[in-house]
Design a protein that fits this description.
It contains two helices and nine strands, in the order H-E-H-E-E-E-E-E-E-E-E. It is mostly beta strands and 191 residues long. The chain has one domain (49-190): Distorted Sandwich (Coagulation Factor XIII, Chain A, domain 1), CATH 2.70.50. Strands 2, 3, 5, 6, 8 and 9 form a six-stranded mixed beta sheet that branches. Strands 1-4-7 form a three-stranded antiparallel beta sheet, with no helix packed on it. The longest helix is centred in the N-terminal third of the chain and has 14 residues, at 4-17. The radius of gyration is 16 Å and the shape is globular. The chain starts with a helix and ends with a strand. This is Chitin-binding protein. Keywords: Signal. Residues 51-189 form the Chitin-binding type-4 domain.
Length: 191
């Protein structure tokens, strides 16, 4: 059962979705940081600031934004899927993006012919970056160390799928260097 505060937060988020959003340049002040123990309710997201997600191959939130799949907040804020580091969920364990974890949704899978796939992130607010990690299940298949530098958009990483075939879900994680935050993006592939 949702608390009164959570119901109010959901109402605010639903109202915000129906309004238009103004993009803020990448050099704008970052949104407030959320501690590991603090819940990130939809109303606590700064709707004016943007962050980043995998745009190619099309991630789940990119599919939401393109209206291929019905996804709630991810349809208007694909770049805002943020949680604490070290999670293995498409939503970043953020309740506002819970739909991204739903394996019963018809997520489109990008067909790839090779074990080598280039993942491209679009960043609309850049942060000092620790690492970019890629997982299939709980196995990390690639890591790119940014050594705390601020990346420029777009960011591309070439990842080896390690001979895996069939339908694959790759979890891409952008770990921010100077906070406990990470941005999460799941990409469905057919190899």
């Amino acid at each position: 059962m949702l608390s009164r505060a959570h119901r109010a937060a959901l109402a605010v988020a639903a109202a915000a979705i129906t309004t238009s959003f103004t993009l803020v340049p990448a050099h704008a002040e970052p949104s407030p940081q959320y501690g590991a123990a603090e819940s990130v309710a939809p109303s606590s997201l700064d709707l004016r600031l943007r962050h980043g997600y995998v745009s190619s191959p099309k991630s789940r939130q990119a599919a939401c934004a393109a209206r291929y799949v019905s996804c709630g907040l991810a349809s208007t804020q694909p770049q805002s899927v943020k949680g604490v580091k070290n999670l293995r969920r498409c939503s970043g364990n953020n309740p506002a993006f819970r739909e991204l974890d739903d394996e019963t949704k018809p997520w489109p899978a990008t067909k790839v012919k090779s074990n080598i796939v280039t993942f491209t992130w679009v960043l609309t607010a850049a942060y000092r970056t620790g690492t970019w990690d890629y997982y299939i299940g709980n196995t990390r298949i690639a890591r790119f160390d940014n050594q705390g530098a601020v990346p420029t958009s777009p960011v591309a990483h070439t990842v080896d799928l390690g001979g895996r075939t069939g339908r694959l879900k790759v979890l891409a994680v952008w770990n921010i260097a100077d906070t406990d935050d990470a941005y999460y993006s799941c990409v469905d592939l057919q190899r």
